[in-house]
Amino acid sequence: MQRIKDYWKKNDVWILGMIIGSITFVFVFGAQVLNTTYTDWLLGGGNITENYLGWCFFRNSNWFFPIGLMDNISYPNTVSVIYTDSIPLLAVFFKLFKQILPDEFQYFGIWNMLCMGLQGAFGALLVYHFVKKKAVAVVGSIFFVIAPVILVHMSLNFALGAQWLILFSLYVGIKRESMNFKKSIITWGFVGFLAGSIQLYFIPICGIVFWGFFGADIIKREKVIHTLLMFLVYLCMAITTVAFLGGFSHFHLPKTTLLGQGSYNLNGLLNPQGWSSIIPSFTVYGENPFEGLAYPGTGILLTFILGTAFWLSHNICQTFMHKDKCYQLHEGNTGNNRLAFFILIVASFLIAVSPWVALGNKLLLKLGIPDWLHSIWLRIGNCGRFIWPVVYLAILGSIVWLEKKIPWKNVAVIMLVILALAQIIDEKWQLIQRKVQFGTDYRCEKRLEDEVWREWAGSDEIEHIVFASNILNDEQLVYSLSIYAAQNELTVDCFKSSCQTIRTITAKELSKALADVRKDTLYIYKESDKMQCNDTRMDYKSIDGFIIGTVK
């Protein structure tokens, strides 16, 4: 019993933060998504359907080496599960047990709750490091959990819900002075492994967090060699993990966007983009503006404003009154982190803004950059995501700022509770939307209603599906057929995934597939492409809104 008490006393801050994050998840997203056999909520289309189907195809695929490859989602080409954002870490783990798992199985609900829990845990640890008050740290963790930047991305792409990795990286960087070299090496290696096995964007984002602290150490000439070795371990572990999962098994070209699309807008930190019922949203230049979402929340803005008001009142009091009549401010202690935070903020900001700098709906500046750098920026794609470390530093800084500047002992906790409630109320329509989206008992409407689909599914002859028409723009059709294929252990020649290279290869090889038609394959045509259905070797049937070709 004493051992349990000692453990609780030592770890209660992050445990309580994790509990708060988990409870918040249930309130926002509902509990039924935690049912591993409930899969319909994942079949409504969009990235979350891509995430789920990526797991389904990966589960049904034979094992390859590297272990993250599968050939049934882009048959006969292989593609890594990395590029369906199916959280490779969990996909590989659960594939080991595919023989004993139920036919309908998903791990995404549990994953999302884990992400929210870890978000609260690391948020609490970060706050506690600076304020040394458990109650403030636990309450402060709420702001990390209800931040729009995590809620919006978690709703669109489950892998991007792992923003606790950024908080973890910040915490490791802050605690580097109290960690010995061996522990630091192991910890940063573990961060690299997690980033490489969850979502590729976290490799450079966590890397920038690391370089913030590394840059500070270089300037101060402190443990430079040790820090460089830690970064090399981080990078090597991340690259090795990606390689082991098949991320380099084919040349990957992500969806490229024009510069300025999906980047951070200069009004980002003050632009709610629909996440406030009080503060109006501002227009944003370009497409995918939510990728540059950086609004920390109305409660956090009020937290910073109140902290600033107390600080100003203190200085005014000291200027015009006797100092002994003025209240005393608590001194903040950031140790050697101010310079690291500054470097991190500047680096994140520059990458997130992109060379096309926009304010509101106006493009202010187009920086001329070398072709090689332009190519890299295009491959970054949604560079607005690199503002996330800045957002979390803003949340952390505002909480610590208020706690240090408030004149009354223990009042900070009460004010933070009020401000957290204010933010929740302000975000209520967005929270309700997610409750409806994920918490409602959703039943996927099957587009494939004809009895012949069951016959083909039960047949030992049919093994493949080829999209003879270009139907990738018809999301509903692609997902309907992909769901059918995944549920019946069939292959598809192409899939709506982030791997543009595979789609390009498939398009080039389509003519070969149609030249050498096979009896074990269903050939899918749009009804508008009826004129193409003239191969004398095949029978064509109009079924459920499109044409199916089979070899005679």
Q: Give me the number of helical elements.
A: 19
Helix content: 40-55%
Count every beta strand, where a strand is a DSSP E run of 2 or more residues: 9
- If you average the pLDDT, what whole number results? 86
Strand order of the largest sheet: 6-5-7-9-8
Domain unit count: 3
Q: Strand percentage, roughly?
A: 5-15%
Terminal residue distance: 74 Å
3D shape: elongated
Q: What is the string of SSEs from the N terminus onward?
A: HHEEHHHHHHHHHHEEHHHHHEHEHEEE
Model description:
This protein has 552 residues and is α/β, with parallel strands linked by helices. The protein folds into three domains: 40-106 and 446-551, no CATH class; 162-252; 268-437, no CATH class. It is built from 19 helices and nine strands. The strands form three sheets. The protein has a five-stranded mixed beta sheet with strand order 6-5-7-9-8, with helices on one face. Strands 1-2 form a two-stranded antiparallel ribbon. Strand 3 (356-359) and strand 4 (362-366) form a beta hairpin. The longest helix has 28 residues, at 2-29. The N and C termini lie far apart (74 Å).
Layout: helices, strands, pairs:
Blueprint: H1 2-29, H2 47-60, E1 69-70, E2 79-80, H3 88-95, H4 108-131, H5 134-145, H6 148-156, H7 164-174, H8 181-198, H9 202-220, H10 224-244, H11 298-320, H12 337-353, E3 356-359, E4 362-366, H13 371-380, H14 388-405, H15 411-426, H16 428-439, H17 452-458, E5 464-467, H18 475-487, E6 491-492, H19 500-515, E7 521-526, E8 538-543, E9 546-551
